[in-house]
Amino acid sequence: MTVGLVLVSHSAKLAEGLTEVAAQMAPDVTIVPAGGLAEGEIGTDYDRVVAAVQRADRGDGVVLLYDLGSAQMTAELAVESLSDPEAAVVADAPFVEGTVAAAVAAQGGASRADVLAAAAAAGAPDKEAPPVTSGADAERVELVLRNEVGLHARPAAVLARRLSSIEADVSVILGDQEADAHSVLALMSLGARKGDRIEVRARGPQATQALDAVGKLVEENFGEPG
Questions:
Q1: Which residue from 13, 74, 102, 173 could staple onto 44, CB 3.0 to 4.6 Å apart?
Q2: Which CATH architecture has domain 4-121?
Q3: Nearest alpha-carbon partner for 82 in 64, 99, 103, 107
């Protein structure tokens, strides 16, 4: 089982579109859109949100994300009305980035508290943090991206998930930009495209294993058709 997600939006199309994006990165996570009014108009529907929470709960709890202020109110009211209000929680996080981060965390088997924390952290990236793999002791390898979309949504999620079980700090460098390879959002921010040459650095007990794993993913085009 995994933590479920409910996306509360004033727009049904916005909630459905974001659900589609997040599902590409977290295929095993139940993500339920709850956008718009029953008549298809702009707004939030309390009954729709309650029903979405019930659908999303597979036993490990639910995290709700919302787009605007009144959607937060609707989400909180829905949680309070549940027979077990402790089964769900509303995240204070950016709608798009928070959803992506939460979905990837849930896909990795994170607890509800950790999924909530991942969503919240997506709203406050520490851009001043030093690179986690700086130093002469870091192992490194250069790779050329051959898959069609480079390090964008799904490939970035595949990479981050693959590294989640490996004990090593890993970063990906493109030009003068460096990103934590465990962060989908950071990887996507590089804007790495097909044909780009990236450098991967790793440090830690399983640094070599981490570099081998990244190299294999690049070689296999992250599972995309060749």
A1: 74
A2: 3-Layer(aba) Sandwich (3.40)
A3: 64
> Is the pTM higher than 0.85?
no
DSSP letter for each residue of 144-193: E--STT-SSHHHHHHHHHHHTTS-SEEEEEETTEEEETT-HHHHHHT---
Domain spans of the chain, in order of start: 4-121, 139-223
Residues in the chain, how many? 226
CA torsion, points 6, 117, 24, 86, in degrees to nearest 10?
Answer: -30
Residue 10 appears among annotated catalytic residues: yes
Assess contact for 95 and 65: CB atoms under 8 A.
Answer: yes
Q: Given this model, what pLDDT does residue 131 score?
A: 54
Q: Which ranges in the chain belong to alpha helices (H)?
A: 12-25, 46-56, 69-81, 95-107, 112-121, 153-163, 184-189, 207-219
Does CATH number 3.30.1340.10 belong to domain 139-223? yes
| Per-residue pLDDT, 164 | 83
Catalytic member of 2, 10, 106, 218: 10
Strand-pairing partners, residue 169, are 203
Give the separation between CA 153 and CA 157, rounded to whole angstroms: 6
Ranges of residues in the chain with a pLDDT under 70 are 124-136, 225-226
What DSSP state is assigned to residue 106? H
CB 1 within 8 A of CB 58: yes
Position 130 scores a pLDDT of 47
What integer pLDDT is reported at residue 133 of this predicted model?
A: 59
